[in-house]
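Exercise 7. Given the encoded structure of a 236-residue chain, write a plausible sequence.
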């Protein structure tokens, strides 16, 4: 496998999306509460954001909380939704800003607490003019709902159906103005999209690993990028 030094920057996927799956199973295997897995997953997320920035990835989208996750036990849901405030502490915000990282949140944010919404607003405002890597956190995100909401908004805005094309429709998605993913990574051994970026993933390469998210590493990220590069080379 090629090392980071051997990877050519122009061969990198411009946009990587990651389904960070397996936190609960990681904890259960160790006899720990599921919340311990989510905390470990948050630290892995921190490292992967740093690694991606070092590699020069321009866009990174992380599936942090799906619209289906509300069905989990309330204690687990409450803990997961406490993590953005833990993650985006003053030290992390300073580091992201210093590294020119832009933070964005996608999904239906209307269900969240005032405290969480304020945290989201603060970091988006603080980093909105940064032009390095963009990190999208998908919270209360569901691909089907995103498409339905886009269609409703088109109707509300009175857009003539005959005028609607792919470009116009994409301007009504949560990811408006951003490139679609080149590579989607899913951890934990599951091999499905699970309602993640359904429109945006139409032409993405998919890469799966049995590794549970808290154990995901820089080496696996590079392996995924290498596989992406090899697939693209075969198609040319």
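Solution.
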């Amino acid at each position: 496998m090629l090392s980071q030094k051997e990877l050519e920057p122009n061969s990198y996927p411009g946009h990587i999306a990651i389904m960070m799956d397996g936190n609960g199973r990681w904890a259960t295997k160790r006899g720990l509460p599921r919340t311990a897995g989510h905390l470990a997953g948050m630290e892995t997320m921190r490292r992967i954001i740093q690694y991606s920035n070092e590699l020069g990835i321009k866009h990174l989208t992380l599936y942090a909380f799906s619209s289906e996750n509300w069905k989990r036990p309330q204690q687990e849901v409450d803990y997961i939704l406490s993590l953005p405030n833990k993650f985006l502490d003053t030290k992390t915000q300073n580091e992201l800003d210093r590294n020119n990282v832009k933070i964005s949140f996608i999904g239906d944010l209307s269900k969240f607490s005032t405290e969480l919404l304020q945290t989201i607003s603060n970091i988006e405002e603080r980093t909105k003019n940064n032009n390095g890597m963009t990190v999208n956190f998908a919270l209360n995100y569901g691909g089907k709902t995103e498409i339905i909401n886009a269609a409703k908004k088109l109707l509300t805005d009175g857009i003539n159906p005959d005028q609607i094309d792919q470009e116009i429709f994409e301007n009504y998605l949560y990811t408006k103005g951003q490139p679609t993913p080149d590579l989607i990574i899913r951890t934990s051994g599951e091999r499905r999209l699970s309602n993640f970026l359904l429109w945006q993933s139409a032409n993405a390469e998919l890469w799966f690993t049995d590794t549970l998210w808290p154990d995901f590493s820089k080496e696996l990220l590079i392996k995924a990028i290498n596989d992406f590069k090899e697939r693209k080379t075969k198609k040319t």
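Remark. The beta strands are 15-19, 59-66, 102-106, 134-141, 183-186, 205-208. Students should compare their own answers with the one above.
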